[in-house]
């Protein structure tokens, strides 16, 4: 199984960015941790970060036939992007939505996700561990479906 991890806008700033909310772990270190989890689960991992909505849409399209599952933290696009939602629905690749922070403890504009209705499920609030938990949940789902 090959899994694609997609990080949306501003997640390149992890470590520096509002550490009280997002923690002090950098994106590189999250990627390293995820590779270890992927090795343990015996799946292949690719990851990409972009601040550009169209690049994220293109990345989701390019996953067709290449990856069997997607873990996505769409950042602020979670709350705004019909295009990302339609891309996920369009490729129909099983997708898990993750967030470092617990969206429902924050501002009300973060309570709505355009991604949630096209995702298998959502993991929100466990900091960097949200990614690991998301990857675990996705691989478990895909192995059951095999
Ligand atoms: C986030 C939550 C979003 O509301 C925010 O815009 C982000 C990060 C998270 O991981 O907690 O950029 O997706």
Identify the notable features of this structure and list them briefly.
146 residues, alpha/beta, Rossmann fold, five-stranded parallel β-sheet, 5 strands, 38% helix, globular, binds 1,3,4-trihydroxy-5-OXO-cyclohexanecarboxylic acid
Element layout with pairings:
Blueprint lengths: L1 E6 L11 H4 L4 H15 L2 E6 L3 H10 L6 E5 L8 H10 L3 E5 L21 E4 L4 H17 L1
Parallel strand pairs: 1-2, 1-3, 3-4, 4-5
This protein binds 1,3,4-trihydroxy-5-OXO-cyclohexanecarboxylic acid.
The site of 1,3,4-trihydroxy-5-OXO-cyclohexanecarboxylic acid (DQA) has 10 residues, from loops.
Structure write-up:
Helices cover 38% and strands 18% of the residues. It is globular. The protein has 146 residues and is an alpha/beta fold. It is built from 5 helices and 5 strands. It has one domain (2-139): Dehydroquinase, class II (Rossmann fold), CATH 3.40.50. 1,3,4-trihydroxy-5-OXO-cyclohexanecarboxylic acid is lined by residues 10, 73, 75-76, 78, 99-101, 103, 110.
Q: Could you state the order of secondary-structure elements as H and E?
A: EHHEHEHEEH
Total count of strands: 5
Q: Specify the helix fraction band.
A: 25-40%
Ions and ligands: 1,3,4-trihydroxy-5-OXO-cyclohexanecarboxylic acid
Q: In one word, what is the shape? A: globular
Alpha plus pi helix count: 5
The strands making up the biggest β-sheet line up spatially as 2-1-3-4-5
Residue share in β-strands: 15-25%
> Could you name the CATH homologous superfamily?
Dehydroquinase, class II
CATH topology: Rossmann fold
Total domain modules: 1
Segments where pLDDT lies below 50 for 5+ residues? none
Name given to the CATH architecture: 3-Layer(aba) Sandwich
Largest sheet: 5 strands, parallel
